From TrEMBL:
Cofactor: pyridoxal 5'-phosphate
Protein name: Aminotransferase
PANTHER family xref list: ASPARTATE AMINOTRANSFERASE
Pfam short name (any one): Aminotran_1_2
One example of a Gene Ontology biological process annotation: amino acid metabolic process
Taxonomic lineage of the native organism: Bacteria, Pseudomonadati, Pseudomonadota, Alphaproteobacteria, Rhodobacterales
Amino acid sequence: MPFLSDTLSRVKPSPTIAVTNKARELKAAGKDVIGLGAGEPDFDTPQNIKDAAKAAIDAGETKYTAVDGIPPLKDAICAKLKRDNGLTYEPAQVSVGTGGKQILYNALMATLNPGDEVIIPAPYWVSYPDMVLLAGGTPVAVECGIENSFKMTAEQLEAAITPKTKWLIFNSPSNPTGAGYSWDELKGLTEVLMRHPHVWVMTDDMYEHLVYDVFEFCTPAQVEPGLYDRTLTCNGVSKAYAMTGWRIGYAAGPVELIAAMRKVQSQSTSNPCSVSQFAALEALNGPQDFLAPNNETFVRRRNLVVEMLNAAEGIACPTPEGAFYVYPSVAGCIGKTSAGGTVIADDEAFASALLEEEGVAVVFGAAFGLSPNFRVSYATSDEALKEACTRIQRFCAGLS
Ligand SMILES: Cc1ncc(COP(=O)(O)O)c(C=O)c1O
């Protein structure tokens, strides 16, 4: 009898965490490495949020709470969804978990049966397919190429839907591409979903506030109110509020689904950290004025990286609407040999030679389900980005 479960054998460890660890190891061994793999802002959590957490500790808010969130936080989430997205939810329709990750996982655990299919536009956030597999479902990846800015078309969605489809996982702006769907683009998808009433939408709005230039964020239940009863709107404080370590995510949706998710959470982790919930309460209710300057910094970095990567031989880098990632294609480098003698057979070989020869850590595209590309996280200093892109340019110039 094998000790480990069959389910686990279908799941791979997170490649993004693997790259971050590898870069950390090389750094610790004295190598000059620039890590562009991390999926978190380099800003500190705003002071008012930290103060709220300290006050919560001093006030003795250090005990178990209601499983899926303290009432004031649920109220704040309802207010946020109204304010930012024009969506009306009651606290009973809201669930708070340990990060956006647990929220998505709870929803999949609560709803998937063997054979159930989940449509995942690729490139995707690395955890989606594995979470679906852990929950016993079948991920159905749909490749959305660079020619349509990595966005799914209505035709692609229509073609992917079968009688077994339970969910579409939708993520805009996207990790790993930064691509954001405009209202009209999203409307194209929601029109398809309106024709298939058995398909639910799990929308991961984690990067909602990290949008640039004239782009305006929108979310499925807002674009098509007819989907309200089969949409789970997921979000969290990790990215916009620089709170990745606090571990608070949330979702709003139909009461029965939220109750089912609560059941999963009650038998796994119980409530998310009490102190973090008070911090998240301040994040949502407190001043939002730090978002604009943070976004100015992100836009500046995005523009710098896009320009420098496009100047590298063999790389094509679209300009995304949001998040803090770009997803350049290395199609022009495939088949060449690096200065260090590595044949660039695919994007994994590209990323690994780049790390070995130039000390730049990026995540290869195959990890996100669309090749040949790599993901750069530009949530790091301008100096580090300039140096990293200079090294990438040198690496590409050395290919022959
Ligand atoms: C698209 C997307 N969804 C969800 C998450 C998870 O967020 P959290 O750290 O709140 O679990 C991430 C984090 O990288 C993400 O990129």
